Structures are given as structure tokens and as C-alpha cells.
Amino acid sequence: MDAYLNIVRKVLDQGQIKENRTGVNTIAVAGAMFEHDMARGFPLLTTKYVPFALVAQELEFFIKGITDKNWLRDRNNHIWDEWCSPAKVTYGHDDVTRKKMMDERELGPIYGFQWRHFGGGYQAWDKAPVPAGVDQLKHLVATLETNPDDRRMIVSAWNPVDLHQMALPPCHYGFQVTVINGRLNLLWNQRSVDTALGLPFNIASYGLLLTLLALESGFKPGTLVGFLGDTHIYETHVQGLRQQLERKPFALPGIENTPFSSIFDWQYKNTVLTGYQHHPAIRFDIAV
């Protein structure tokens, strides 16, 4: 997928060394843009293996507004293991703190909570918010049905009031949906972009969300666009990314969906990849 590989090249060629909270330096650029026409195939990297099931599980987790890390762990999904709400365990790099963060299931009012309960009074993963807040995703779906030409179909995960309770302030902090000439487009904004590990997941996740919203509303899938802020490569990831650049991409896969009544009832098992041909996985250590 050239759009992704070109971002990798840009950061490697133009990036500057930058320190950050993780203790692992990055090579960073101020801004990049990702763009992909969904008619060309589903945007899942082929220059390395990307576990689509983990992407789909996390998206279901967000759509349902779940904030319990164990929901993912019960599905053998460990992408949120290292984090927890700082209201439960204060962030730290030492081994004792890392274990406490790993063991704590509470993630706080992260992405899905904001999508489904923006402005709600967050209590805990197992308690309903009081007040309930605004269901932004439900409102977006309703607007697609009643006024698809609307230019205000926006969902925000950035809520300054709740940041102190979140396991991580949202990296991808909002998205907009537009409909042009019968095609549904999704444009997301991201403040911090881990090019090696996070960005391939973000691309696939929003590509899947675009597809689900198109199915929900009866429009054709259109263009996926990412507006990327601090776009960086950790110094420990450079070798693996250079290896990816040497690989020839395969044709993009497709996806198939078994019937579901609405996006709110969709489960990750309803969607499967077809024809996913890929190069071997490349291990990138996560910077917490």
C-alpha cells in the first residue's frame, strides 16, 4: 500500500530526532496525510502481517463503548494490556508500576465511551454513566439516514474534562463522515502517530468503520483519509521499517460480511478477510 509506505519514507528522509515520555527517542515530522480509495481494496498492509481479528475486536470494543480491558483479554487480544486508568494506577516505567498497570482492568473513559457517552459522568467500567451523555455515533448513523449531505457528521474522542481518567489521551481524536456522489467517505484526525505499530491498525480500523457505516446507510464505500499530526518512528523500529520498504506489496485483500441488523449489533466475527496475501510479520517492540 503505497500511501502508507510513502509516509514511512517521508519520516525516514525528513524526520528529526525528538524525545518523548516513553524514554525511546523518535524520528518525527510535523504532519502527514494518508489517502486511500476503498474501491482499490481493503487497506490492510501486505508488506508485513497485520492481525485483522485484533483490529476488528478493538473496533467492536469501541462501538459498544466498553472500557474494561478484560473484554479484550477474554478474546485473546492484548493490545491494551500495558495501560490502565491513571485514576487507578499512576503512570510509571518501573517494573512494579508496569505490573500494576498490567493487572488493572479499568481503562477509564477512552475512545468508545466518548463515542457513545460524550459529556457523560464516567463512573467505572461496570457502571452506567450519570448523566448518560451524548451518543455521537448513534446521532451520526441517524443523520446518514435523514440528511446524508450534512457536513457536521463528526464524532470526537477528545474530551479535556475526562483526560485525567483515560488510560491514554486519544491518539486518533476524531473523525468525520461525508457523502459525495453516493459514496461514503471517512476522514480521521490523529495527534500522535506511531508509524510502525499504530498506524497500520488505525488505517485498517477506520477502513472497517467506513465499510460498516456504508453498509448501514446503503452508500458505496468511498475514500479513507487520515490527517496525521506528530508522525514518528521510534528509533528501535527503523530497521524493521527499512525491511518493509524492500518488500514488494501484494494486491490488497477484500472483506466479506455476514448479515447483521445494525452497526450497534455488529460483532467482529461478522467480518472476514478474503485473499489476504502478505509478507511475514515483523516484530516491533511497543514503547509505553
TrEMBL record:
- Primary location group: cytoplasm
Q: Summarize where dUMP binds, as residue positions.
A: 21, 151-152, 191-194, 202, 232-234
Q: Where in the cell is it found?
A: Cytoplasm
Per its record, the protein catalyses: dUMP + (6R)-5,10-methylene-5,6,7,8-tetrahydrofolate = 7,8-dihydrofolate + dTMP
For this UniProt entry, what's an example GO CC term?
A: cytosol
Q: Does the keyword Transferase apply?
A: yes
Annotated Thymidylate synthase/dCMP hydroxymethylase domain ranges read 3-288
Identify which residues the record assigns to the active site. Answer: 171
Q: Which SUPFAM superfamilies match?
A: Thymidylate synthase/dCMP hydroxymethylase
Question: Which pathway?
Answer: Pyrimidine metabolism; dTTP biosynthesis
The enzyme's E.C. designation = 2.1.1.45
- Return one GO MF term: thymidylate synthase activity
Keyword Methyltransferase, does the record have it?
Answer: yes
What's the top EC group for this one? transferase
* Protein keywords: Cytoplasm, Methyltransferase, Nucleotide biosynthesis, Transferase
Question: What is the name of the protein in this document?
Answer: Thymidylate synthase
Give the residue range of the signal peptide.
none
Family assignment? Belongs to the thymidylate synthase family. Bacterial-type ThyA subfamily.
Q: How does the annotation summarize its subunit structure?
A: Homodimer.
